[in-house]
Amino acid sequence: METQDDLGPLAFYGCAMGWATQYIAKLGKGETVQFRPRGNSMTGRIESGQLCTVEPLNGEVTKGDIVLCKVRGAEYLHLVKAVQGDRYQIGNNRGHINGWIGRASIYGKLTKVE
Asked: What are the backbone dihedrals phi and psi of residue 64, each rounded to the nearest 5 degrees, phi first?
């Protein structure tokens, strides 16, 4: 299990530099990952710096799940706000919508916050 203590201030904001690239690669190999994202976009669900455990995606993705995903090239640990067939609307916990993605752009599901 991979643990990262500090990803910097842009972890929730979908930094174009790929803050989650290493975690996405590990999830793709079936590994569970842990990291401490920084930011306020998920306040109320995840506080800045809390240890997050994300498991590889298998099974159903439903409204309300928190997923590690990519929207228009930016990586996020954000909410599934809506599901429409095989499309998923991604957004934060403060009302912002990032956009719609397919299942192939969802890499893992949050299973634990400490």
From this structure: 100, -15
pLDDT in tens, 48-72: 999 999 999 989 999 999 999 999 9
Closest CA to 68 of 106, 96, 16: 106
Residues 6 or more apart in contact with residue 55 via CB below 8 angstroms: 27, 32, 108, 109, 111
Residue with tokens 């916990």: 93
Domains in the chain, CATH or no CATH each: 2-113 (2.10.109.10)
CA 19, chain centre distance (Å): 11
Cα separation, 112 vs 99, in Å, equals 24
pTM reported for the whole predicted model: 0.85
Alpha helices in 1-114 (DSSP H): 21-28
Distance CA 37, CA 109 (A): 15
Which sign does the torsion angle of CA 46, 48, 49, 55 carry?
positive
Q: Is 40 helix (H, G, I), strand (E, B) or coil?
A: coil
